[in-house]
Amino acid sequence: MNLDTLRAAVTGPVLLPGDEGWADELAGYNLTVVRSPAVVVGAAGAGDVQAAVRYAAANGLPVAVLGAGHGSSVSDAGSVLITTRRLTGLAVDEDARTARVEAGVRWAELVEETAKAGLAGLNGSSPTVTVVSYTLGGGLGPFGRKHGYAADHVTALDVVTADGELRHVTADTEPDLFWALRGGKGNFGVVVAIEFTLFPIRAFYGGGIFFPGELAGDVLHLFREWSRDLPEEMSASVGLLHLPPAPFVPEPLRDRLVAHLRITHLGSPSDGAVLVQPFRELGTPIIDTVGLLPYAAIASVHSDPVDPLPLYEHGALLRELPKEAVDTILELAGPDAASPLVLAEIRHMGGALSRAPETPSAVGNRDDTLYNVFLVAAGGPPDAAALHAYEQRLIDALAPWSTGRRYLNFMFAGDASPQAAALAFAPESWDRLVAVKRRYDPANLFRINHNIAPGG
Question: Is residue 8 packed enough to be buried (19+ CB in 10 Å), middle (13-18) or exposed (0-12)?
Fold first, then answer.
């Protein structure tokens, strides 16, 4: 297939470097990612995705996919890049408590729609992440301890595989591919739509409490002790934030270090208030938004920035969080550290996140993980090496309490080796994923990712 044939087969734009609209089509959230594909296809429907995949296969080119552009992995140089922002179909079945969304839909859009029906999906912290990409990588959200990973509640996927076929995949039609797609992210095809279960959540008790940096040690050590015996209805994290003097930051938080407790409680508000009370006894917060909130306000819990930023990220899974681990985080990211990190987050795991779902998925590293540490630094290309080195220093310092494994959605460009990709899965799951890859993508067309190669 030549380029003219591709253009004739596609409804959306087909762009080459230098074409009008090229830069806009490549724009994404993480400004550190430099994209240089050979051709871009702005998919307007599943048929466009099929044509793009067939063109790539015919010309021996890899396929890359761009949704919101939060994450990063290997270079997409020379690829056929499919952008999904025009795939905006969204349908909520209130009676069945299900949703069907296409690959360009972001969580903010779906939250707004489901909230009207008193229903909720298992969204992430950021409202600008696409539902499909987030879910394929697992989907670790603010209701996780109660309901598990988002991937565990997917009931069907429409995916274009390496042969250019559009498949409707369920646990009954193609069980191995269904298992692999839910947790294996973009390794097996281009998912153009997913269907999943919604939950009857109209409101929750939660929000965020911002403490001044001088209380960071008290907040983190209380979190360590407090989180040990929490009911599954409570999902929580705490972040050390070095906030810039930027307009998007609330004035009381600008240009300072703060400790940010983030909680959601799906039990009674009175029980939630009792659970959070120990933090309110620590001292006077800068801002306290915790209370009974409508599901539509879920993004306010983490208050993630929505405008594009240049971010470098890293992470680790911990099997425990002893005093020494908290002291290590405070030493390198706390009030006395000359830290370049804008975020060092400790997220409480366990509960439903630790259990295998009723319909197994490929999401790995459940049962021995009690905490997830997530680091974010901001800066331009000249800063990249130093920022990565600082993040790695903190991750290495946490090694005594680490599982040595990773969570796929929190893996980025520095984690893209085959050895690193395998750390996101249990060894037996990795072997099964390789077998599924060999069956559905033997030429490794889908390799612009944290790759599961057909050769293992």
Answer: exposed
